[in-house]
């Protein structure tokens, strides 16, 4: 779908990734263009992971607000760098050329002729450099444990698109990144102590974001299979992949109950039950083949994404309610 003829707003750039004409791109402000290039809407999952790590430290009673803030900004920039590098790599290798799925659901600044390769490379470096600087600063402030997480995160960032995604390891990379690395890492810099329990919470909380990438790879399974990109859904097949996503959509709820028993999460984590309606909608979608054409009541600015859209709605609601549960727990503790 094309964006409206009007100038693209900040809200539009943050809510979805519209497909822009050259004139719309030129009329957009530099900041809006940047948000569109980095696919800003999906960065919400990264902020939620960073916030959850900080919430864990806050709930325990001690948080280094400065270190956590630098960490959150660094993680957002790292995710933005990964998105830019993804588009750059897939364009250079020819994956995104022609009528590939990636060019149909949002602006691809290279394939749509909006930026040159040199400009996108420069933007990628300019985005990644402060992310790396944030990690190095946190290593000096908090300690060498941060360096291990920084190294692991940098490896996944650089090699996710090639070769991890093509080897069927991209989904595991997402679980590790949005789970123990981001949540456990944010808790580490906020509390100055590594907690394995935070890594465990990270794995549970990382399952919904992982269903988003599973869903996205299911949405473009045919395109990936035709181009020899061996994502996990390509290797497992649609039916088994959908079953795996259903399991990952259900698992976080009983897992949080188990984590609450020894006190790794507060009992208020039961608030995630308010995300169950979104989970049911996602599960219902994943139990069936996608429609051959956009349903009349389905948003224009989301199609042709289908599975990933339902998974993202669930991940966003789950993350919001889990964060809210920590906020409620802290308020109760202060009362």
Protein model, in words:
- With 335 residues, the protein is mainly α.
- The chain has one domain (42-106, 122-334).
- Helix content is 69%, strand content 0%.
- It has 15 helices and no strands.
- Residues 1-5 have low confidence and may be disordered.
Compact description:
The protein has 335 residues and is an all-alpha fold. The chain has helices spanning 10-15, 22-27, 30-37, 43-60, 65-92, 117-142, 145-164, 170-191, 196-219, 221-226, 232-236, 238-250, 252-260, 276-286, 307-334. α5 packs antiparallel against α8, α9 runs antiparallel to α12 (238-250) and α14 packs antiparallel against α15 (307-334).
Radius of gyration: 20 Å
Q: Which structural class best describes the helix and strand composition?
A: mainly alpha
What portion of residues belong to β-strands? under 5%
Quaternary state of this entry equals: single chain
Give the uncertain stretches in residue-range form. 1-5
Helix content: 55-70%
**C-alpha end-to-end distance:** 50 Å
Give a quick account of the main beta sheet: strands, pairing sense, barrel closure.
none
Tally of structural domains? 1
What is the general shape?
Answer: globular
Give the number of DSSP strands. 0
Number of distinct helices: 15
**Secondary-structure element order, N to C:** HHHHHHHHHHHHHHH
Rounded mean pLDDT is: 91
